[in-house]
Amino acid sequence: LDDYALCDLAESPPAFGWESPDAQGRTAADRKNDRRQAELQGESREEALRREKASAPLFGGFYDALVAAVVRPPRFEYDPRLLGPSSFSFGGRRYHRHDIIIENERGLRLHGSHWRSCDEERCPCVVFGHANSASRAQACHYLSLVLGLGCSLFAFDCAGSGLSDGAFVTLGYREARDVRCVLEWLSKRKDVSALALWGQSMGAAAALYYQGFAAQESGVWPSLSCVVLDSPYSDFTELAAHVASERKAVFGGFSLPKFVLDLLLASLDASVDARAGLRPTQHLSPVKHAPHCDAPALFVRARRDPLIAQEHVESLAKKYKGPRTLALVEGSHSSPRDVDARRFVARFLARHLPLPPIAKRPPSATAERHLQCAPWSRVRTEFATPSPKSRSRSMPPQPSSLDSSPASPR
After folding, report:
1. 3-class SS at 397?
2. How far is 279 from 265, CA to CA, in rounded Å?
3. Cα dihedral 89→90→92→97 (10° resolution)
4. How far is residue 180's CA from residue 222's CA, in Å, rounded to a whole number?
5. For the residues 268-285, what does the mean pLDDT come to?
6. Region of 40 on the Ramachandran plot (φ > 0 left; ψ -120 to 50 alpha; else beta)
7. What pLDDT, on a 0 to 100 scale, did the predictor assign at position 43?
8. How many CA atoms lie within 13 A of 313 on its CB side?
9. Which contacts qualify for 374-381: CB closer than 8 Å, 24 or more apart?
């Protein structure tokens, strides 16, 4: 059955792609909903076009990019078969992927997947939070790492991303509430002994917001054994200033004056508030929540990251309340991490999670061989690395296919 599933994926590769927004940061689904609402309200097509023209941005591409980055980046749409076979053997053990739907606090359906061993014994669960233009498919890069530790992995599409409901994303602010719903669901399972969060970009910010909300609000907020924070931003205003200074070509080779940036951000606040009920300069600041975060944290920053500056990650780490470690790794903002970074993350998780006995985990040699490929991939020799040709037959979703960068669609 495993061979049949892999051959089926190889012969009919799952489709995927990004749905890019227009100049106003709106997707085809957004425009369709707008037209439907206009018809219900008795608005003529000519009136709707005049209203859209009047709401067009005045500051050009940089302003459009800022609005889209907050509430409507390119949406990653995919065939669920991109997640791989729903049942496979790894290290002599059988694993299943269970696809579920969880409803969040706003009544939106969140599509998630839980990879776990068939024996259903208690083990820690690592919850993966994806980047703002990605989906739960991004977690497939690290599935072998997590299963190799004897843990289960849960990944889901945040509201407004992937296959889940919702029209907007909020750079982790409301996604933290989605994380809460997922953690509540997992904490009620008898086969989950502990919980950890692993977030990349927006997912990392959501992990910070989650801990901040849990410390300041009442209600049920499941505790975390540790968190992996890969490329989190510290504050939206600082992020916008950094991006503006790094992309001088947009402004004719000159740095953007501070008063112009302030005008852009004020306009951005109004635009995002009108569309999503959120003011980025007031709400999007993970660094304000860092003093309330106490779970052991691993901060990760890529050397070639053009978005997240080193000093921004360091400022987050300095204000973080709990134990923290800062790691500098190879790669860019949203690229899959290399084998050395994955080993470092594995050691961090092993240090803070109550892992099952070694006898109940996949052999360490098998886990090591599969660090950079899917657990269902065929790796025939102990020290051999699968060739690109064989890897394409056994694992259709190549690492570059799951890259969350909007510039990567093919």
Report:
1. coil
2. 10
3. -50
4. 7
5. 88
6. alpha
7. 59
8. 27
9. 374/84, 374/140, 374/143, 374/144, 375/88, 375/90, 375/91, 375/95, 375/143, 375/144, 375/147, 375/148, 376/2, 376/5, 376/6, 376/84, 376/85, 376/88, 376/89, 376/90
Question: β-strands 109-117, 324-329: how paired?
Answer: unpaired
CA pseudo-torsion sign 331, 332, 333, 335? negative
Give the mean model confidence (pLDDT) for residues 109-137. 94
Amino acid at 235: D
Q: Which pLDDT does position 400 carry in this prediction?
A: 34
Place 120 in a pLDDT band, splitting at 50, 70 and 90. confident
Which position has the higher pLDDT, 402 or 353?
353
C-alpha span between 225 and 232 (Å, rounded)? 19
Q: What is the pTM of this model?
A: 0.80
d(CA 170, CA 272): 10
> Could you tell me which of 316, 321, 313 has the C-alpha nearest to residue 291?
321
**What sign results for the dihedral spanned by CA atoms 345, 351, 354, 356?**
positive
Q: Tell me the CB-side half-sphere exposure of residue 4, using CA atoms within 13 A.
A: 3
Spatial contact of 341 and 329, defined as CB atoms under 8 Å apart:
yes
Share the mean pLDDT of the chain.
Answer: 82
CA 241, 178, 150, 335 dihedral sign is negative
* pLDDT for position 10: 63
Per the structure block, which two tokens stand in for 215?
Answer: 């410390």
* pLDDT tens track for 207-252: 999 999 999 998 899 999 999 999 999 999 988 888 777 765 444 4
Tell me the CA distances in angstroms from 15 to 136, 163, 256, 263, 409, one per residue in order: 15, 13, 40, 41, 12
C-alpha to C-alpha distance for 169 and 395, rounded to whole angstroms: 29
**What letter represents residue 180's amino acid?**
R
Query: 359 vs 92, 150, 355, CA distance in Å?
Result: 11, 10, 11
SS3 of 257, please? coil
Dist CA 175 CA 80 (whole Å):
21
Q: Residues for the chain: how many in total?
A: 410
Average pLDDT over residues 297-309: 94
Q: What is the DSSP letter of 182?
A: H
Q: Answer yes or no: is pLDDT of 27 > 60.
A: no
Which residues are CB-contacts of 224 (< 8 A; sequence separation ≥ 6)? 183, 195, 196, 197, 211, 295
